Amino acid sequence: MSSEIMLSREAMGGAMQVADTLSKSGLIPRPLQQKPADVLVVLLTGQELGLGPMQALRSLHVIEGKAVASADLVAALCLRRPDVCEHLTVVESTPQQAVVSAKRKGSAAITIKITIEDAHRAGLVGKDNWKKWPAAMLRARAISHAARAAFPDLALGIYTEGEEDEIASGALATEQRAESRAAATPPHLREQAVEGQVVEQKPTKPAEVVEFQKPALASGEPSLVDRIALTLHEAADKTSLLAAGKAIATTQGLSDEDRRHLRAIYGTRQREVRQ
User: Fold this and answer.
1) Residue 116 domain boundaries
2) Which of 43, 53, 203, 230 has its CA 20 to 30 A from that of 191?
3) Helices 134-150 and 173-183, interaxial angle, to 10°?
4) Which secondary structure element, helix H or strand E, spans residue 91, and what is its range?
5) Which distant-in-sequence residues (6+ apart) come within 8 Å of 221 by Cβ?
6) Are both 131 and 188 inside the same structural domain?
7) 14/79 same-domain check
8) CB contact at 8 A, 119 and 136
9) Of 63, 93, 109, at which residue does a domain stop?
10) How far is 8 from 135, CA to CA, in rounded Å?
11) What is the pLDDT of residues 207-250, one digit of tens each?
């Protein structure tokens, strides 16, 4: 057996002992007390995020395997990487709506807007925190959405406080997939965006996918990928969408990245056509 495996087991054993000891302390958050396995998950999650043990215990908890943190921590995880995150900015924060702008280096900026009407449709407003602090709750939700959409490699799927019920019910699963697709837009489409253009992604309910944005084509002949994307976007019914979708698999000259991007668009359009 290699020394690396032995060291890994020894390190894990040490971590479990630390977690067991910490779980008996009255100084850690109450939900973690007497739960050494949960303490261990929080410590390991914090390590992945570059947080110290006590910072992780103060800042994180885990629900259904998802890391949940304050909006401030999610923003800090992105802003500490200026080589990736050009900005993550709260543009507006009121009890009626929150608007957050995010820009990844080399990509067009996006904005995420969450309104109190969105929260009503999601059944959130009746909860205590939403009654007392609607502006803060809207702001946290917008920051979380923007960070996951623009910087999935930095936010690492973290959700903010207030999203616990949706995580437990699975209502956020579709949102997470849609945000990942939005962040995976190929560079050749990003470069065609108008300078300073903001692409707005406005979620209207927890299980709704982000609306596919028609690409802003540069002057001249559109690329092969753009032509297929536009065909998918313009398909008005299931039959025309299916015909357009077949081109993703049969068209020569598409890279694997192009096909993944087009399949994501196809999946989004399928949901839109069904509505």
Assistant:
1) 71-201
2) 203
3) 50
4) strand 85-93
5) none
6) yes
7) no
8) no
9) 63
10) 45
11) 333 333 444 444 445 677 777 877 877 777 788 788 888 888 88
Q: Tens digits of per-residue pLDDT, 53-78?
A: 888 998 887 776 666 888 888 999 99
- 71-79 vs 134-150: helix crossing angle, rounded to 10: 30
Q: Does 214 reside within a domain? A: no
pTM of the model: 0.56
Cβ atoms of 91 and 100 within 8 Å: the answer is yes
Question: Do 75 and 195 fall within a single domain?
Answer: yes
Could you tell me if 87 and 101 are in contact, meaning their C-beta atoms sit under 8 angstroms apart? yes
Query: Of 153, 141, 162, 143, whose CA–CA distance to 183 is shortest?
Result: 153
Token readout for 272 is 């839109």
User: What's the token pair of residue 204?
Assistant: 């209207």
Single residue among 39, 63, 87 that ends a domain in this structure: 63
Task: Show the tokens assigned to 162.
Answer: 């207030």
Buried b / exposed e along 36-55 (16+ C-beta atoms within 10 A) = bebbbbbbebbeebebebee
Q: CA-CA distance, 149 to 111, in Å (whole number)?
A: 10
Paired with 111 in beta bridges are: 101, 200
Domain count, the chain: 3
- Same domain, yes or no: 89 and 142: yes
Q: Which two tokens stand for residue 138?
A: 């809207």
Query: Could you tell me the CA-to-CA distances from 204 to 68, 102, 157, 199, 270 in Å, in that order?
Result: 22, 19, 20, 16, 17
- 208 within a domain of the structure (yes/no): no
Question: Do the domain assignments include residue 210?
Answer: no
Domain membership flag for residue 171: yes
Question: Measuring CA to CA, which residue among 91, 119, 117, 111 is closest to residue 213?
Answer: 111
Residue 74's SS3 state is helix
